[in-house]
Design brief:
Blueprint lengths: L9 E2 L8 H9 L10 E8 L3 E9 L11 H4 L2 E3 L2 E5 L5 E4 L1 H14 L7 H14 L11 E10 L11 E11 L10 E5 L17 H16 L4 E5 L7 E4 L3 E6 L3 E4 L10 H12 L3 E4 L4 H10 L2 E8 L3 E10 L2 E4 L7 H14 L10 E3 L1
Parallel strand pairs: 1-3, 9-10, 9-16, 13-14
Antiparallel strand pairs: 2-3, 2-8, 4-7, 5-6, 5-7, 6-18, 7-8, 10-11, 12-13, 12-15, 15-16, 16-17
Helix pairs in contact: 3-4
Bound molecules: pyridoxal-5'-phosphate.
Pyridoxal-5'-phosphate (PLP) binds next to α6.
Keywords: Amino-acid biosynthesis, Aminotransferase, Branched-chain amino acid biosynthesis, Pyridoxal phosphate, Transferase
Protein name: Branched-chain-amino-acid aminotransferase
Enzyme class: transferase
């Protein structure tokens, strides 16, 4: 069966779930990406057959042949979004259909089959529903959902795989806001780029992350938190961080973020912030920002704030910028008022404390 809405899930509850006592202990301080829930979703795909065998089952290892295509040629894509427990006890997700659409775009770029968006959203609902007790309480806490797809055909030839496995796992995540987000120092890599025109920069694929790790290691080596990538052609313009988009706030109340020209991941947080900033009365522009201008505008005081954004940490202020020949501060290196206001506004919508005027919040 290939029609997404026609595919029914077989539910096989985990016969040995984590006990309530143990779960409570794990949820007290889950950190990020280390604790996992009792279940996972799996759906298979075969050329000529379409999507089949949709299941909610006990989370566990995926049996894999060593010649599975993904292990050799990295045909893999993923998504990341969160489920929240609101103050009234209801459970929501933020714009899951936007993740579904991006998953389709990523699949196309990586020559993978398109998972019907309604099947994608349904798979998330099923997993959150069965593992709802794993959604941590507390401001900023959430259940991080990680849908991904891998090429599973056992074949070493170089061509798109004929078989795929789609999986969703879930991981409780602690608050990022306890004590506020500390501004980060970013490293401008002199050696590495993230994405070239015509490449896979706009696809959410593991390969992009693999390629960014040496640059990230260089950033840590230089005493920085994150790497910021410049464009691969001229090495002049700011693209984005390894896993977050970037915004600049100027003294004339303009917010600027680099345009989506194919080398930048189209972030859903980025998209939401463009809307919210315009609503808050800021002028918003999607245009290239050169690194030279970033430094000059920081020096002149024209640049008031800079921040990175993405689902995992929502908004992270950028306080300091380092490169091989020097470094500079953005304003006083702390978190600015526009950053704070936008973060508050977005989180209030996500948490159901502000009206959802854009239909971004999906209730379970
Ligand atoms: C996922 C991701 C982002 C942020 O996207 P969101 O939809 O806001 O989470 C930004 N850059 C890269 C490279 C990413 O992989």
């Amino acid at each position: 069966m290939s029609g997404g809405d026609m595919l029914d899930f077989e539910i096989r509850p985990n016969p040995t779930p984590v006990s309530a006592v143990e779960r409570a202990a794990l949820l007290a301080a889950p950190g990020f990406g280390r604790v996992f829930t009792d279940h996972m979703v799996t759906i298979r795909y075969a050329e000529g057959k379409g999507w089949y065998d949709a299941r909610v089952e006990a989370r566990g290892p995926i049996p894999m042949d060593p010649a599975s295509a993904v292990l050799h040629y990295a045909q893999e894509i993923f998504e990341g979004l969160k489920a929240y427990r609101l103050a009234d006890g209801s459970i929501t997700m933020f714009r899951p259909e936007a993740n579904a659409a991006r998953f389709v775009d990523s699949a196309r770029r990586m020559a993978m089959p398109e998972l019907p968006p309604e099947l994608f959203v349904d798979s998330l609902r099923r997993l959150v529903d069965i593992d709802r007790d794993w959604i941590p309480e507390g401001d900023g806490a959430s259940l991080y959902l990680r849908p991904f797809m891998i090429a599973s055909e056992v074949f070493l030839g170089v061509r798109p795989s004929n078989e795929y496995l789609y999986v969703v796992i879930a991981s409780p995540a602690g608050s990022y806001f306890s004590g506020g987000v500390k501004p980060v120092t970013v490293w401008v890599s002199p050696d590495y780029t993230r994405a070239a025109p015509g490449g896979t920069g706009a696809a959410k694929c593991g390969g992009n992350y693999a390629a960014s790790l040496a640059a990230q290691a260089e950033a840590i080596e230089a005493g920085c938190d994150q790497v910021v990538f410049l464009d691969a052609v001229e090495r002049r313009y700011v693209d984005e961080l390894g896993g977050m988009n970037v915004f600049f706030v100027y003294d004339d109340d303009t917010l600027v973020t680099p345009p989506l020209t194919g080398t930048i991941l189209p972030g859903i947080t980025r998209d939401a912030l463009l809307t919210l900033a315009a609503e808050a009365g800021h002028r918003v522009e999607e245009r290239p920002v050169s690194f030279a201008d970033w430094e000059a505008d920081a020096a002149s005081g024209r640049l008031r704030e800079a921040f990175a954004c993405g689902t995992a940490a929502v908004i992270t202020p950028i306080g300091r910028v380092k490169y091989p020949d020097g470094e500079f501060l953005v304003a006083d290196g702390g978190q600015g008022p526009v950053t704070t206001a936008l973060q508050q506004r977005l989180v209030d919508i996500q948490r159901g404390r502000a009206a959802d005027e854009h239909g971004w919040v999906t209730r379970l």
